[in-house]
Design goal:
Strand order of the largest sheet: 1-3-2
Number of strands: 3
Largest sheet: 3 strands, mixed
Number of domains: 1
Structural class: alpha+beta
Helix content: 25-40%
Radius of gyration: 12 Å
Order of helices and strands: EHHEHE
Length: 72
Amino acid sequence: MHDDAELIRRTTFNEVLDKRLRVMDSAAVSHCMENDMPILVFNMQESGNIVRAVSGEAIGSLIADESYPSRG
């Protein structure tokens, strides 16, 4: 964990790559972008977060194209 980390609720693949946000490997981000696969980044160690994520709850950070629907 980084004390200076900032939560970004939603961003695009291009912004992650352009700003070199170190969310995950840039090749993996590019692969998801090319295959239109959104990425949800969240804390898996917090109890209940996996259920919240698959239920569509707005937790963590969503990385997707601008056309991807908003979350609840």
